[in-house]
Design brief:
The protein is α/β, with parallel strands linked by helices. The protein is 43% helix and 13% strand.
Length: 444
């Protein structure tokens, strides 16, 4: 089985490497020559645990290669995955230009017995439109849709041991070939679900929007907890023990970000409106998440006695989540920007050493470790829940700061451990509680 993957972004690169790990012959294609050169030398351009090791292993074994010449490697391919970006337009709709550019580039050379699979996240009807596009140019090939459900920071595990695989197909040939591609997962009894194209396309948007709603809901419950005396962490545990709900995506914080939730919720709301279907829950999820960032800025200001001008503030973690260097739609962008505008002097430490972050936060100092970042700080803010931060020696941190104020927007500590270290503590979704050596600040 020869597989070509067009696009070496997050989805394309992870998919290509994992298909090679399954034992298939894989060629990854990208029109960025510098990127392809780095990949050939074993340099992975994204931060994803385990990906570099797996890439080098399969490249050394000869199963994984990289090229800029798409047409030459689709001639003999049994299956071609399109995994290019589908960014949002300013109005929330999806920019499909990269998908169509890729299809237009390869169609003169594509193997007519191959299956062309769209793996990029696209609105309902796009895969059928691609098939029509090809047919209008005299190319009759099987077209399918295979959404990805990869979590950044756990993508390898998600690909190799997925909850399910969704395959939108229209022909017995496409079903047969895609069954062979995912045959290595049969040993794990992974559910392989075959649907029509439209169902497969919508399943991706429905899943991500539901998870975004779940994040937004627990953040709204956190707001309520702060004024009624409940603890959002304990509420989340109580909810999560109900098997109908589950405990995942019930961690209160500064709101969701990343490459999927913001883009997919906006896209679902946009294309459903174009079809005449109102999606008020999706629309409110977007509004509430945007408002969440403003509320977090207000929380920080209240904790700092409503004045951050000329204060030294240490920021621990700026990527949208832990175990990635991805800054797309990260809550930190708005929060850091608001504090900078109000005259705060910021220092940042992020364990990913994200180059994206350094480009976004130009003019802000970056530290090499958490302790140095917090030297002489008037406040320490935790924006991303990296495991490294859970192991910080809070007493040592207290010795380094100028003012013992810890603003934990991920709730990675308990009141008792922070109190024992002598910090004033501001967290999310916990009622006001005055302690012997610490107090918690909340937005009223």
């Amino acid at each position: 089985m020869r597989i070509t993957v067009v696009g070496t972004g997050y989805v394309g690169l992870v998919s290509g490497v994992c298909f090679a790990e399954f034992g298939f012959e894989v060629v990854c294609v990208d029109n960025n020559a510098a990127k392809i050169d780095r990949l050939r030398r074993g340099h992975v351009p994204i931060y994803e645990p385990g990906l570099s090791k797996l890439l080098r292993k399969n490249a050394t074994a000869g199963r994984l290669t990289f090229t800029t010449d798409a047409r030459s490697v689709v001639i003999d391919a049994d299956i071609v995955f399109i995994a290019v970006g589908t960014p949002s337009n300013p109005d929330g709709s999806v920019d499909l230009s990269y998908v169509y550019q890729s299809v237009e580039e390869i169609f003169p050379s594509v193997n007519k017995t191959a299956v062309l699979v769209i793996k990029s996240t696209v609105p309902v009807g796009t895969t059928a439109a691609v098939k029509g596009f090809l047919r209008s140019r005299g190319v009759e090939v099987d077209v399918a849709f295979n959404p990805e459900f990869l979590k950044e920071g756990a993508a390898i595990e998600d690909f190799m041991h997925p909850d399910r695989v969704i395959l939108g197909v229209e022909s017995p040939n496409a079903k047969k070939i895609l069954s062979q591609v995912y045959r290595p997962l049969y040993v794990f009894n992974t559910p392989i679900i075959f649907t029509n194209l439209e169902t497969a396309e919508l399943s991706k948007y429905a899943s991500n929007t539901f998870l975004a709603m779940k994040v937004t809901f627990i953040n709204e419950i956190a707001n309520l907890c702060e004024v009624c005396g409940a603890d959002v962490n304990e509420v989340a545990i109580a909810m999560g023990l109900d098997r109908r709900i589950g405990d995942r995506f019930l961690q209160a914080g500064p709101g969701y970000g990343g490459s999927c939730f913001p883009k997919d919720t906006s896209a679902l709301e946009d294309f459903s409106a174009k079809l005449g279907v109102d999606m008020p829950l999706a629309r409110e999820t977007i509004r509430s998440n945007n408002a969440r960032r403003i509320r977090m800025v207000e929380k920080i200001l209240r904790a700092c006695d409503n004045e951050v001008n000329e204060k030294n503030i240490a920021v621990l973690g700026v990527t949208f989540k832990a175990n990635t260097d991805d800054m797309r739609e990260s809550p930190s962008i708005d929060i850091v920007g608001a504090l900078t505008t109000r005259g705060a002097h910021l220092r940042i430490y992020d364990p990913s050493f994200s180059e994206q972050a350094k480009q976004i936060f130009q003019g802000i100092d970056f530290s090499d470790n958490a302790y140095d970042c917090c030297n002489e700080a008037d406040a320490v803010i935790i924006l991303t829940d990296w495991s490294e931060f859970r192991a910080i020696n809070l007493r040592e941190l207290n010795r380094r700061v100028r003012n013992p104020l810890l603003i934990d927007l991920r709730n990675i500590y308990t009141l008792s451990e922070v109190s024992a270290a002598g910090f004033n503590y501001c967290s999310v979704g916990r009622a006001f509680e005055k302690l012997k050596s610490a107090k918690e600040f909340v937005v009223e």
